[in-house]
Amino acid sequence: MSANHGTLSCPATAALEHLKAQLGARLSTDPAELEPLREDRSGHRSPGAPLALIRAGSIEDVQLVCRTASEHGIPVVTRGAGTGLAGGACAGPGELVLSTQDLDQVHEISVPNRLAVVGPGILNGALNARLAAHGLWWAPDPASKDISTVGGNIAMNAGGLLCAKYGVTREAVLALTVVLADGRLISVGHRTVKGVTGYDLCALLIGSEGTLGVIVECTLALRPVVTGPRPVVSASFPSVIAASAAASAVTAEGLTPALLELMDGPTVECVEQRRGRRIGSAGSSFLLAQTDGPEGAEVAGRIAAIFEAAGGEVRAAEDEAEADELIGLRRSAFPALEARAQRMAQEGGFAGGGSILVEDIAVPRDRLAEAFERIREIELRHGILIPTTTHAGDGNLHPIFLVGDDEVPERIWEAAGEVFRIALELGGTLSGEHGIGLLKRRWLGDELGEDQLDLQAQIRAVFDPQGILNPGKVFAREH
């Protein structure tokens, strides 16, 4: 126990003493371990460190923590790898952090049933490495797949580059075992392909951001590994509007590439600076498609023709190495923009270093070009640059705000708020894959409306009457 625990409230002291006696070294109050838990990859940082970190080694450990926290009224923040971009795993003063990273076992791989049962702590990439030996694959493909956990993917309903063809995380989960706020253990969903018994609580828990329960076991729907060629076609366009129109034309033609990604001119410029090579003509936007399956080559050819007809300078990868290189350009966008923000901080003399605010909206696919036009208007009105990358195959845009210091200034939030309103005006949503967390909760009512917002808060209260699971996240007001 740390030296300052004498200043804690009596319930907190009693809870920590009880948990320490039961968990031993699995509970830590070391300031060096608690400090990083104040933030995730969103750029948000809580005002102080949490009470303690508990590394659960079993489902029983999770039940013990939730039961104890419920008895003493202490908030619990469940945390996986901390790779989220909405502040959903940030913990602050008076809160317990419950890590599920050590629950990383593969309990079962069933080839006949195309399913796997795993702990929430296993990394997305590590799981697929295990599954490959069985000719199977778990489809969710977030950019953070090599460092993000399956439990985190499920809690946020993560997306990624392959959603247009293979869906978001919700489409790849069959069942969950969950510990409720009071320590009870429930199983939701089914191992079967079909199952319509009662309300679909499994779907409700996916994307609930740790506010309804703690996921402790996951039954996943698998796919056969994709074999054969996976052609890659890219094109440079004179404007992001032209590139957006080309992307929309691909889906309008009834084509479904595995991957359809767009980077606007400012993003391309940052990638070029980081990679030390030119991608296309100066100031151009970059559109990238990958196809797979038996008709992959034919679909790639049709996409190339669409790109060319829309004014694109088309390039088809000649081999797998070149295909990986082209996809790598897209995957390097966020690091390249982080590097640009850090240079901005140095140029501006900010001691804290720069960061990026990676935002996340989605619009109908035929309104991509309009979304980009509106974002450009916001740039001009606020005098800022908003580089934007897009999962163009499913209409999910990532407007990225370059921040010259550790704190996001209010003028940036004002511009972000306008971006969110654009998404709603175009028939879209505040978040395609990152979730609401802390960062977007003030705009949630704009999309849901008061009646639905109240209903969702009531549902939360049924699962967690005291509101101790991830308090303050998603909902700006607690009921």
Question: How would you sum up this structure, described in words?
Answer:
- The protein has 479 residues and is an alpha+beta fold.
- It has helices at residues 10-23, 31-34, 59-72, 124-132, 150-156, 163-166, 201-205, 240-252, 265-275, 296-309, 320-331, 333-348, 368-382, 410-425, 444-463, and strands at residues 27-28, 52-55, 76-79, 96-99, 106-110, 115-118, 136-137, 173-179, 185-189, 214-221, 223-224, 232-237, 259-263, 285-290, 313-316, 355-358, 361-362, 388-391, 396-403.
- Strands 12, 13, 14, 15, 16, 17, 18 and 19 form an eight-stranded antiparallel beta sheet that branches. The protein has a five-stranded antiparallel beta sheet with strand order 5-6-10-8-9.
- The chain is globular, with a radius of gyration of 23 Å.
- The two termini are 33 Å apart.
> Quaternary state, please?
single chain
Could you report the average pLDDT, rounded to the nearest whole number? 93
Task: Please identify the structural class as seen in this structure.
Answer: alpha+beta
Unreliable stretches: 1-6
Radius of gyration, whole Å = 23 Å
State the separation between the terminal residues, measured CA to CA: 33 Å
Secondary structure: number of strands? 19
Q: What proportion of the residues is helical, as a percent range?
A: 25-40%
User: Number of helical runs?
Assistant: 15
As a percent range, the share of strand residues is 15-25%
Identify the overall geometry.
globular
The main sheet comes to:
8 strands, antiparallel
